[in-house]
Structure formats: structure tokens, C-alpha cells
Amino acid sequence: MDLLAHQLIHNIYVPSSATLRRRSDDSASVSVAHVEDQVQHKLRSLTELPMYKENIMNGKYPQRICKYCKMKTTFYCVGCSDLENDYLVSYCGFGTSRDCYIQHLTEMGF
Asked: Which whole number is the average pLDDT over 8-26?
């Protein structure tokens, strides 16, 4: 076990020019989170909407189609949606490998 630990710590196969960074230093996530705090175009979960409460109680979680990638998503944009007229604009959230919400913010000029 000590040999394996030593080999992992002193890995000779990683070039000295390689720079490693922590996950928490992801500048894209930080900048998007910062922008999201300043704008009205925030992502919210569809489960927070009263119109889906009965479905959730029956074990059916709401899904809508993303405006960009046309895949199923469980988020909507507060700024683009009109809840009084049941008009929702949905985008994929950060938990997916897609960047639909970032595209939306870019399109909106943020």
C-alpha cells in the first residue's frame, strides 16, 4: 500500500508543464452564478410550480422540452416564462452535460 501511495504522489507520467486545478476553481460556474444573481433570467425547478403539485403527489415529475437542445428538462426560466398564461420556457440545468442555460444567458447579452 505504501508503494502505491508513493507512486500516486510522485507520478512521473504527468508532465511538469501540466497544471492541475481544483473543481471549486471552475471560473465558468462562478461567472454564471454571479450573472444569475443579477438578472431576472433565473432557472427554477418545475416542481416548485403549483400547477404540478398534484402530479408530484402521484409520483409523476414534470418534464418539458428544452428550447435549445429539444431534450427533456425539469427547469424553466423565470424571466422568459409567463406563469399567469401558463407559458413556460424551459432550458437544461447545470446538472446536465449540456450548456443550454449558458447559451440562453449569452443570447440575452449577459
From this structure: 57
CA 104 to CA 46: how far, in whole Å?
Answer: 18
For residue 24, is pLDDT > 70?
no
Instruction: Give me the amino acid identity at 67.
Output: K
Considering only CA atoms, give the Rg of the chain.
20
DSSP 41-67: --EEEGGGSGGGHHHHHTT----EE-T
Percent of the chain surpassing pLDDT 90: 26
Backbone phi, psi, residue 73, to 5°: -145, 165
CA 14 to chain centre: 31
